[in-house]
Design brief:
Layout lengths: L5 E4 L3 E5 L8 E5 L1 H11 L4 E8 L2 H13 L6 E4 L5 E8 L2 E7 L15 H5 L3 E5 H5 L2 H16 L3 E5 L9 H12 L4 E3 L2 H8 L4 H11 L3 E5 L5 E4 L4 E4 L12 H16 L2 H15 L12 H13 L1
Parallel strand pairs: 1-4, 1-8, 2-6, 4-5, 8-9, 9-10, 10-11
Antiparallel strand pairs: 2-3, 6-7, 11-12, 12-13
Helix pairs in contact: 1-9, 9-10, 10-11
Length: about 300
Amino acid sequence: MTDPEIVCIGEPLFELNEPKGENIYRPGHGGDTSNAAVAAARQGASVGYVTAIGADRFGESFMNLWAEEGVDTSAVIRSQSAHTGLYFITHGPDGHVFSYLRAGSAASRMTPQDIPAKLIESAKVVHASAISQAISSSAADAVFTAMRIARAAGVAVSYDTNLRLRLWPLDRARAVIHAAVSLADILRPSLDDAIQLTGLADPDRIADFYLALGPKIVVLTLGAQGALVATADRRETIEAWPARLVDATGAGDMFDGAFLAEYLRARDPFAAARYANVAAAISTEGFGAVAPMPRRAEVEAVIAKGRSG
């Protein structure tokens, strides 16, 4: 097997999703960077994942998922002493609600020594998120180590701010996230995250703030307003693609994976964001994070239909 061009780092979470009007939990797979890895693989990119999982049925389910999706698992650690993280999704009048069982998970025990330097050095882009760092101090250090290895090797670094204040207080989150942003080449904050992290509300000012920290590309997702893509010499707001919303779980992760896959193919961040917008919209038309993620053929067919219609 050739070395993967995209290497994602973080924590997978086994998903139990209770659809509206039902009293059962449907099993699935989640965890933002695992979702992004699957999303990228479904767009035709070669992808590897760096994580630790328990030697339990949930971890085995992930190994089966990644094998089916063609995700390289050579750097996945199978722990005999820690469990795979879990999360539950319920749906109410205000949208979906997450409940987690992740304290002490195998991924949260990762350290800088667990980072596979050669796998990262041979990649084209390394992707991590704030959640990858929020789960523990040692995991945060592991991600910083991976980012510095990538930069030293000339490998692009992608980072999603994915702010989860259940995991850490805002002041600590802001300090760690902005330190990571300074090491990133591609940054994907959401508007909600950026407002809390920067204290700014105007998308252009947010883009300016983050470009000044070092990233070459900032893709600020704006929910129903689409996404603002900004570089040092150009910016463009890309309209949201219409969708029949069922469940937005994992939509941002779908965007990340689709963006990276398309960016490596086309080397155009604006075209990559337009493609990722469509892919993310499609992924909201079914329940769960992974199950409704489209493959490239479906995304291209929807784009072609939209253009012709």
